[in-house]
Automatic annotation (TrEMBL), chains A, B:
Annotated catalysed reactions: tRNA(Pro) + L-proline + ATP = L-prolyl-tRNA(Pro) + AMP + diphosphate
GO cellular component term of the entry, any: cytosol
Role: Catalyzes the attachment of proline to tRNA(Pro) in a two-step reaction: proline is first activated by ATP to form Pro-AMP and then transferred to the acceptor end of tRNA(Pro).
Protein known as: Proline--tRNA ligase
Major enzyme class: ligase
Domain of life: Bacteria
Gene: proS
All copies of domain Aminoacyl-transfer RNA synthetases class-II family profile, residue ranges: 37-341
Signal peptide residue numbers: none
Transmembrane intervals: none
Enzyme Commission code: 6.1.1.15
Amino acid sequence: MRLSRYFLPILKENPKEAEIVSHRFMLRSGMVRQNSQGIYTWLPLGKRVLDKVNAIIREEQNRSGAIELLMPTMQSADLWIESGRYEAYGKEMLRITDRQERAMLFGPTNEEVITDIFRSYVRSYKQLPLNLYHIQWKFRDEIRPRFGTMRSREFMMKDAYSFDLTREGAEHSYKKMFTAYLRTFDRLGLRAIPMRADTGPIGGDLSHEFIILAETGESEVFCHRDFVNFDIPPEDVDFDSAEAMQDVFAKWTSVYAATDEMHDAAVFDALPEGERLSARGIEVGHIFYFGTKYSEPLNAKVQGPDGKEHTVHMGSYGIGPTRLVPAIIEASHDENGIIWPRSVAPFETIIVNMKAGDAACDGVAERLYEALTNAGQDVLYDDTDERAGAKFATADLIGAPFQIIVGPRGVANGEVEVKDRKTGARETMTVEAALARVA
Amino acid sequence: MRLSRYFLPILKENPKEAEIVSHRFMLRSGMVRQNSQGIYTWLPLGKRVLDKVNAIIREEQNRSGAIELLMPTMQSADLWIESGRYEAYGKEMLRITDRQERAMLFGPTNEEVITDIFRSYVRSYKQLPLNLYHIQWKFRDEIRPRFGTMRSREFMMKDAYSFDLTREGAEHSYKKMFTAYLRTFDRLGLRAIPMRADTGPIGGDLSHEFIILAETGESEVFCHRDFVNFDIPPEDVDFDSAEAMQDVFAKWTSVYAATDEMHDAAVFDALPEGERLSARGIEVGHIFYFGTKYSEPLNAKVQGPDGKEHTVHMGSYGIGPTRLVPAIIEASHDENGIIWPRSVAPFETIIVNMKAGDAACDGVAERLYEALTNAGQDVLYDDTDERAGAKFATADLIGAPFQIIVGPRGVANGEVEVKDRKTGARETMTVEAALARVA
């Protein structure tokens, strides 16, 4: 992408409303814009990151055997009355009346809708296990939306729903998602720690939050230091094997980890001091096993091998992509801007032409741009006539892993400079070496 | 994808509510499910098609220079009051009050929001031309939603918005989208004919609808037969060249074409009979140039080369992906089911194992499945123990371009059968030849 033809509205000033660093950098780098309180547009740069985050989530959901569909944002109130949650959900639910005076709502979550879909089609245990997910906009009318897209009213959620004949099967399904989440967050460059959690309005008796550690975290968390070095399940882990899933689950729940709500100070304090880790955390995922809480009132049953009807056991599994983006920034930035993990970087390389209009600089920059684009890289080519200082500031702010700096002095020697955004190291090398370095 | 692990809820009976063939086949093949009146879930098979349609739309938008972002579904009423459309839009607009008693709405279109974004960031003509688009859910509370996702209340729309300093520039932008649309519909396997159109509630003085011909079309259309053979602009057409765009536009507007509303019977009837084509049509895209209709009330101005402020000239350009899917089916099906163009087929090949559980058949089917999957094809492998007749019916219904039929008799000779869904031709050949045929 040539910057001269892109839409990248960089803000020079720090926006006053931004209380945390991710919100500040997302506004300054032109990733998002607030349209109304807690409602955001994802500008082109932000949209690129969001797409990459979603692609990784999707790959890991699919790998675990979950199947993607797409439910609507607008739901009928009827199903929520049937499940008993319509009144209980309170003011966070955005209630809407359509032109036929029917009670509708903007879905804050989808347990009811998916259970209705399930009961309409599935009759036999032979069609189980089943895990259906979608990535769709949700709305929760928070009284105090804040921190940009970290806690917004309209937000994107990947929500998966598992259906099993038995509790045992449902626990296998739960551990599949547990494993998929470990892999997902790792690929996003995050170390997420699963912590036993309260089940809140979703209900159920087994639940884990996945928490990343960050100074700006909304809650205090407590865990064993060992988590920092636990191995992530490999790509070829056998999701179909209950034993393999149990192994992952056992390992990752073998030592102490708790959010503030579930914290047991006596147990934690009994750990040797060097093994204790207490910090601020950001929740980036939440998984639930809730048995028949929705299948019972909604009458979702299948015929079992015994020929009898069985109410299915369910779980639900959420990740918020529009929350993950700022969480990644909280975990990876410096005073100059964002430091993207390569897997989700909006651009992998930025080519900074220090003297646009100079035939020699343009020639080298164009050659780099063409070579990297042809190699399938996402490249931003700063071909504008801004002064060099502003270009460097922008490149640091938007945080591509590599910058290739093309200036007249280097070009005269057939050289360019490659800057590693993370370490800040700059190195002069030939064009060919630069291409190899960022490949 | 192995069918035994997929979620493909095939209906045996014809759903009573389906009045048109696309709606019938989309329900029967488990592509969509109605959740409430005019509100649908895209089940896994439908989601795959929708994704492929969107990918093609996106590629052609990007090729033309348009830039993707993502605006929210919920909008504040304030901007619509500012533009003067809040009252005018009537009951089709879903009006919502949030917990703070603020007037909100579920966006039926985005002229106001995008103009607000534009005016917040763009100050100079040097940043123009600019074309920003998104693919997002919209809601129009139609009094009579029908024909499945062809006319639903919650629907997906790709809407692009162009900004130019002058009318001349805006016309160039308009012709870019005109050209991009011709390419988009062609890649979706459709012959779409641009027809001068009424501008309706969007306003403006230049507008074309893109209409495909189909017996079930909602309106009567009239055009010159030559349209059927006009060449589609090539991939490397120069979008930056006003002349190249004018050439495309001139060609595709050189002969008569009109919807019912704009029809001039005298002109049409003057054509030789053999050149007249009158038929039913389905609108699949609509583009508008509306000058300063929104930029004027919303005060979207840039500084021109003359140092003065100029109100920008705008256009908007819509395609409905959730409408395109049934439109493609209307244009391509037979009595047994859908016949997908390869570019948007949910699966390119279906492997039908006629005797699942038979070691020889399983071996050959697995080999085919693995080879095609590794080659990057979207393959559905029917490994279930349904009887052969039901498997054939399903394969025809869901309409993958190719079926590879693996049966015990053929396998004994080292052979399988390849069926071309469109022609119905079946041919016996070796496994290697089958792989080459569907590649």
